[in-house]
């Protein structure tokens, strides 16, 4: 019977979804790396402008990640209930919402680009280059958001391979377009923005075509449904609140690092980059949990849902421990790659040691996040996000006020973020998972 499924079978399902998802997750940061490498050779003002512009662009796209999460949960649940037509129909509605948001945000970003750049403190040539990149990349926003929504549909259908291949192809196309437009066509940083926009639009078109083909084969309609789009927006709203709370915590951490001096801030940039890379790896398990949990709850199979919860938590905590050991033990050697300043090296080593020791907690948290998103428990996650932010804020501000500057201050900051903040998230999500309120079955 389904509920007596052996652990090895669940493990195969987790890995079958998580491994391709990891590849697709890693492909997205490659866009930024390629842009940085190409633009960096144009000059320091251009690279500084790209830093400002990419921060703004990634923030806009990051706040819309609910398009992927909410769609994954909705599609997986309906597919598990045996209604493939309704599953694809909800996915199509989510993609219409993504397209509408993409067009609106693209227009807003084009108009507001100079203001947004100014808010981050850029001026002169740096501000000009940042504005140019934003305006040339803005037309790609509909593609970026369609990639999120269509990837969510395919994950809900338990297909993480197609997004992997499209992401890999998009990364290659982005690299080629950047070189051709920046240097071959002589467009400078504007060519980098245009290349990214074209690559993202192409990725969105390909993934949309894949979903449309599946919808037609299943007999699902393609026209936008006002009720369905509103339902997608309503389901995504709590996840937007959750994402905003996470972003605010990250911004607060940067604010505290800035107050601890240049050495701590420089070290924090490296430590947070390593943490982010590890988070992508752990998020692959969260994506697998989203799809599998939504599918099993849709089918009304609570026993297997609990089994998936246990196994993904074991995988997440174990992966966090392994990655954490590498991060904690390799901090000093990693620091040599980034700076020759001995003080910054010490700061990086200490920060990575603290982050690495606490990374198993992050593995636990990311998986539980995926489980509850897959269960459609967005409202609880929104409330929990606000609660954990309120718990973290006074601790972070205390670090800014009383911690010493330099390496020791950075260690205290990461103890606050990877310790207090992540433990607060672990507590709120863990208590929820121990109960049964999130185990809502059916569609």
Automatic annotation (TrEMBL):
Example GO molecular function: xenobiotic transmembrane transporter activity
Lipoprotein in keyword set: no
Protein name: Putative MATE family efflux protein
InterPro entries cross-referenced by the UniProt entry: DinF-like, MATE_fam, MdtK-like
This protein's GO CC annotations: plasma membrane
Membrane topology: Multi-pass membrane protein
Subcellular location: Cell membrane
Alphabetized PANTHER family for the sequence: PROTEIN DETOXIFICATION 44, CHLOROPLASTIC, PROTEIN DETOXIFICATION 44, CHLOROPLASTIC-RELATED
Bilayer-crossing regions: 14-32, 52-75, 96-116, 136-157, 164-185, 197-215, 248-268, 274-294, 315-335, 347-368, 380-403, 409-427
Keyword set, alphabetical order: Cell membrane, Membrane, Transmembrane, Transmembrane helix, Transport
Keyword DNA repair set for record: no
Family as reported in the entry's similarity comment: Belongs to the multi antimicrobial extrusion (MATE) (TC 2.A.66.1) family.
Organism: Sanguibacter antarcticus
Pfam families referenced in this protein's UniProt entry, alphabetically: MatE (PF01554)
């Amino acid at each position: 019977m389904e509920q007596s499924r052996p652990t090895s079978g669940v493990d195969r399902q987790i890995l079958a979804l998580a491994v391709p998802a990891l590849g697709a997750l890693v492909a997205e940061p490659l866009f930024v790396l390629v842009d940085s490498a190409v633009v960096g050779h144009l000059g320091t003002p251009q690279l500084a402008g790209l830093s400002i512009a990419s921060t703004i662009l990634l923030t806009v796209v990051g706040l819309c990640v609910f398009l992927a999460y909410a769609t994954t949960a909705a599609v997986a649940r309906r597919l598990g209930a045996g209604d493939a037509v309704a599953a694809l129909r909800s996915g199509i509605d989510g993609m219409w919402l993504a397209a509408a948001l993409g067009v609106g945000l693209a227009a807003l970003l084009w108009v507001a680009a100079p203001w947004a750049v100014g808010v981050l403190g850029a001026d002169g040539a740096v501000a000009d280059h940042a504005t140019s990149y934003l305006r040339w990349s803005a037309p790609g926003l509909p593609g970026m958001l369609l990639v999120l929504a269509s990837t969510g549909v395919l994950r809900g259908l338990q297909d993480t391979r197609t997004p992997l291949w499209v992401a890999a192809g998009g990364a290659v196309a982005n690299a080629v377009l950047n070189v051709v437009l920046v240097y071959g066509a002589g467009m400078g940083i504007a060519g980098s923005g245009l290349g990214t926009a074209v690559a993202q639009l192409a990725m969105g078109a390909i993934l949309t075509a894949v979903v449309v083909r599946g919808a037609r084969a299943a007999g699902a309609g393609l026209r936008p449904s006002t009720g369905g789009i509103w339902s997608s927006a309503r389901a995504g709203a709590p996840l937007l609140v959750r994402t905003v709370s996470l972003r605010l915590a990250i911004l607060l951490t940067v604010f505290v690092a800035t107050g601890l001096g240049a050495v701590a801030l420089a070290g924090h940039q490296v430590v947070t980059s390593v943490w982010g890379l590890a988070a992508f790896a752990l998020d692959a398990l969260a994506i697998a949990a989203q799809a599998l949990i939504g599918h099993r709850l849709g089918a009304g199979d609570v026993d297997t849902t609990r089994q998936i919860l246990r196994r993904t938590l074991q995988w997440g905590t174990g992966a966090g421990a392994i990655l954490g050991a590498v991060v904690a033990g390799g901090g000093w050697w990693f620091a040599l790659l980034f700076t020759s300043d001995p003080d910054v090296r010490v700061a990086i080593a200490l920060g990575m040691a603290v982050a690495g020791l606490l990374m198993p907690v992050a593995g636990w948290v990311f998986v539980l996040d995926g489980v509850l998103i897959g269960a459609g428990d967005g409202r609880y996650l929104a409330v929990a996000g606000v609660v954990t932010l309120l718990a973290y804020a006074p601790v972070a501000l205390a670090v800014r006020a009383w911690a010493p500057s330099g390496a020791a201050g950075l260690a205290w900051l990461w103890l606050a973020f990877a310790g207090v903040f992540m433990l607060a998230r672990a507590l709120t999500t863990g208590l929820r998972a121990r109960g049964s309120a999130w185990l809502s079955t059916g569609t």
